[in-house]
């Protein structure tokens, strides 16, 4: 699957669909991402106050649309450490040159989330 996902790494956004922790309904957001192998990394500026992060705490099974393709995935909130630093570095590197804002503090203060892509939704 790695080869089929890598050509989508340059997409500007992904579309993350979580299951509402109260409603049980699908909720989709547009969000910046970076891809490493078959793991997608996101940063939540709202940290664990963001609804999508709260939803992941309750139900880590998610869907991610990259370009025209949708994948099933399993989300993980990252603790400080090697993978957390990787997430911050690669998301910052992807968007720092594209943004007119200084993203340094955002990349340091945000909550890092990993989504392991499992399979394509047919």
From TrEMBL:
GO terms for molecular function: oxidoreductase activity. Gene3D superfamilies: Electron Transport, Fmn-binding Protein, Chain A. It comes from the Bacteria. Pfam families: F420H2_quin_red. This is Nitroreductase.
